[in-house]
Design goal:
CATH topology of the largest domain: hpI Integrase, Chain A
Number of helices: 14
Distance between the termini: 79 Å
Number of strands: 3
CATH class of the largest domain: Mainly Alpha
Number of domains: 2
Strand content: under 5%
């Protein structure tokens, strides 16, 4: 049999050319499979159940459940490919039952008043006296944050948008999600439309040269790290102590729509989730908020009632 390293490279090539997975997913697969290969370097039978069990035990003892689950999924997909291609006689995962409970973590959201404060800070900065280049940068920052919250898209999706993905006539954006799945979302707020229009006018030349929708001062694609730093900068200017991440705008988008009685299946499509189960985590957030409301805000709490002797 060919070396594990060669098999890994063949599989990654298959993922790139046949499955059309994005670079971020390919990078995660490469890391996960390289880790398994390094672990198995001293084993004469890397595909044996004994070696696999030892590897899984190491994962469970080293990583958080979510990371462990992803690494196992990467390995299972790799083995399935080898089995399908006839490069593995027996897939050890076929007779292994893997089940472990992940701790349920509620997605972190940004309170609406904090989002309002954050946006007001952005617009306030745009009205300050500044150099033309700084004013341009602020226009871009406003467009980035407005679009991030208006659509609930992932930060990776936003940074990979091309100019042609924004339709300013129909006020819509074409988003390329995980697995190259596409979805189209309407931009329903006039302030967001205006922010995008002003940004497109200001950066017309740089966008035309690069092809990317959002660019940095050098005219290159705006990176995810740059957006994180941007958010930290304006949160500090606003005096916001809450640590805000790009993904929290996505969580807030979904949770606030759910609390506004939007059907969860519409939210699922807008977020680009393949399964409704993924979206249902936001119902937990909503129920958590409901409990807080009924515990703290219900008018019964302010009523003095003489219960007498029950």
């Amino acid at each position: 049999m060919r070396s594990l390293e060669n098999l890994k490279e063949n599989y990654l090539l298959h993922c790139k050319t046949q499955k059309e997975l994005n670079d971020k997913t390919l990078k995660a697969y490469r890391i996960d499979l390289s880790q398994f290969i390094a672990f198995s370097s001293d084993s004469n039978e890397p595909f044996s159940r004994e070696n696999i069990n030892a590897y899984l035990t190491m994962l469970h003892g080293t990583y958080q459940p979510k990371t462990t689950k992803r690494k196992i999924a990467s390995l299972k997909a790799f083995f399935h490919f080898l089995e399908y291609e006839g490069l593995m006689e027996v897939n050890p995962f076929n007779k292994m039952r893997l089940s472990f409970r992940e701790p349920k973590r509620l997605p972190k959201t940004i309170p609406p008043n904090i989002i309002q404060l954050f946006l007001n800070t952005l617009y306030r900065e745009s009205r300050q006296d500044a150099t033309p280049s700084k004013k341009k940068s602020i226009l871009r920052d406003i467009a980035v944050i407005e679009l991030l919250f208006a659509t609930g898209m992932r930060i990776s999706e936003l940074c990979c948008l091309k100019r042609q993905d924004i339709d300013m006539e129909n006020y819509s954006v074409l988003i390329w999600g995980k697995g190259s799945k596409e979805r189209i979302l309407q931009i329903g707020n006039p302030d967001v439309v205006l922010a995008l229009s002003l940004y497109l006018d200001a950066f017309q030349k740089q966008i035309a040269q690069s092809g990317w929708l959002f660019v940095n001062r050098l005219g290159n694609r705006l990176s995810e790290q740059s957006v994180r730093l941007m958010i930290n900068k304006y949160a500090k200017l606003a005096g916001i102590s809450l640590h805000i991440t790009p993904h929290m705008f996505r969580h807030s988008f979904a949770t606030l729509l759910l609390e506004a009685d939007v059907d969860i299946r519409y939210i699922q499509k807008m977020l680009g989730h393949s399964s409704i189960t993924t979206t249902e985590i936001y119902t937990s957030v909503s129920m958590h908020k409901q409990k807080a409301i009924l515990t703290e805000k219900h008018p019964r709490n302010g009523m003095e009632v003489n219960r007498g002797q029950l």
